[in-house]
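Continuing the series of single-chain predictions for the mutant panel. This is the parent chain; the variants come on the following pages.
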Amino acid sequence: MRGTQPHVLRLFVAILGAVGLILFFDPLGLRLASSSAIGNFYPTDHRAGGWFMSSTITHIVLFKFKADAGADRIKTISNRFLGLKEQCVTMTQHPYIRKISGGRDNSPEGLQGGLTHAFVVEFESAAERDYYVNLDPVHQSFKKEIQPFVEKVTVVDFTNGAF
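Parent structure:
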């Protein structure tokens, strides 16, 4: 850029820097960098592996349904839980749950402590998990709706490989 006025060059550098920061930090959660080479290095969770390492969060939910909940109600609740993947969206209507799976306990070990059903929810980041747990109106409504039918809930979250 030889011969360019210094103020034009400074403006160009500032614009490039701003675009880089937006792509790198993704402040609105738009996943702008997720398909680029830096997609795995924007700071989504600093607890596992450093500030600039994207970390998938696995959220495990275990239920013990009340004895009088009934098989049909339990099936309805379970299907609603699985349906949260499509229903839970960001404020910009972007689905953010990567995957949900679940089912009735069938372990022969007898170590489940009365827990009858398990669900595994995967999030791209701790921020998405935190939004789901604390703010998502669909999830908040779901928790209130199932409360009368669930005796016990156990939740465990982890980042794979972070010990």
